Input
Amino acid sequence: QKKRRAATARRQHLKSAMLQLAATEIEKEAAAKEVEKQNYLAEHCPPLSLPGSMQELQELCKKLHAKIESVDEERYDTEVKLQKTTKELEDLSQKLFDLRGKFKRPPLRRVRMSADAMLRALLGSKHKVCMDLRANLKQVKKEATEKEKDLRDVGDWRKNIEEKSGMEGRKKMFEAGE
Output
């Protein structure tokens, strides 16, 4: 139990020491940012001195308007660049998503459609020709062979078995084989 208390006390001490270090680091960073901000403003925005005459005041206004226009152009260019890169990123992420194959394919339904209806759906009102797919097929006449005639003539298989049973049936089979 003593070891647990010692470990807990040590842990608490380390935690408070880390929090103190973090707080001092945050203060240092805030001070550094403030100094950097002051330096930037001193460099890019000199202190404003208002001239006494109306002519000089108008020239100052013209210079300020020119600077504002140039800054606006830069801002617009950066916005356009950002939009373009964002669009490219979206396209690339979509391609990556497609290549991974994580999307679900919708279940396809079987649709019965004639060739004419399919052409009408594809071509719209331009489709005037009716396609009869069966018109170009060859007509094949089936020749009846003797075997098929025999099978048709035999009829019921039970009668056939009864005829062949016994000595008479074997004699018929023997004669038929010759």
Notes: Residues 1-47 form one domain. The CA atoms of residues 134 and 140 lie 13 Å apart. The chain has six helices and no strands. The chain has a mean pLDDT of 79.
